[in-house]
Amino acid sequence: MSELAGIDDWEQLWGVPNTAAAVITADGNVSAARGDQNREFGLASVTKLLTTYAVLVALEEEALGLGDPAGPEGATVEHLLAHTAGYGFDSGSAPVARPGARRIYSNQGIEVLTQHLAQATGIDFADYLAEAVLTPLGMKHTSLPGSPAAGGRSTAADLSRFAAELLSPRLVDRQTLETAVQVHYPGLAGILPGLGRYNPLDWGLGFERNFARPGHWAGRRISAGAFGHFGAGGTFLWVDPESALACVCLSDREFGDWSKQAWPALSDEVLAAHGR
């Protein structure tokens, strides 16, 4: 039985109309899949992973640098990617803290960053994302019709290609990715929307690094070295380097109490099936 078989009961148990999920191994192959792999879903904040990867390409191309001033006074590209620039959560929000002082998860910070990149390159960010990430990976059914923080759309098949890239990077140097998934500005407390306050709230450059904490949405078997993101629209993607696995899950029911029960159980089943 597939380690993803549990999602077959989600509609009855949790009222989730549609779900598509996949498990990706280190060789880039999909070892298990459930649901329509070509159905498009809104990604919500999983969009941030695609956006981050485009920024990593830009860093390697030297279109910008981590230390470049960007956003509010005293903030840099690194602050914006690591949610420490001081902006509030919502789009259009004003700074509420000095850069580097607090971990404030912020859509606004990501949007300001992509505006900065567009100005630096002279290329609209959606076009840059397509040229730098989507087209090279063959993600033909992924688009950015909305915010680069939360407005992407994709399929499980396309995100499986992206997850394979995260397991074995080709578009950026492995060291670039390893630097991005390290914790930046360690020790900062913060609030993760929908889940509560963590002290510290660990984050890399665009990648959540808060895994293996009690009550985490990715369950109890995942390693502390894992990285990824979840979206309030009912989506997640995690990569666990220790088990050399990635898992993509897209649904069309918003994150809530059901996710806090269903997602950890699903992730634990995936990792247990692969000996974790």
TrEMBL record:
Residue ranges of domain Beta-lactamase-related in the record: 20-266
Any Pfam family the entry gives: Beta-lactamase
Gene3D superfamilies in the cross-refs: DD-peptidase/beta-lactamase superfamily
Protein name: Beta-lactamase family protein
Species this chain originates from: Kineosporia babensis
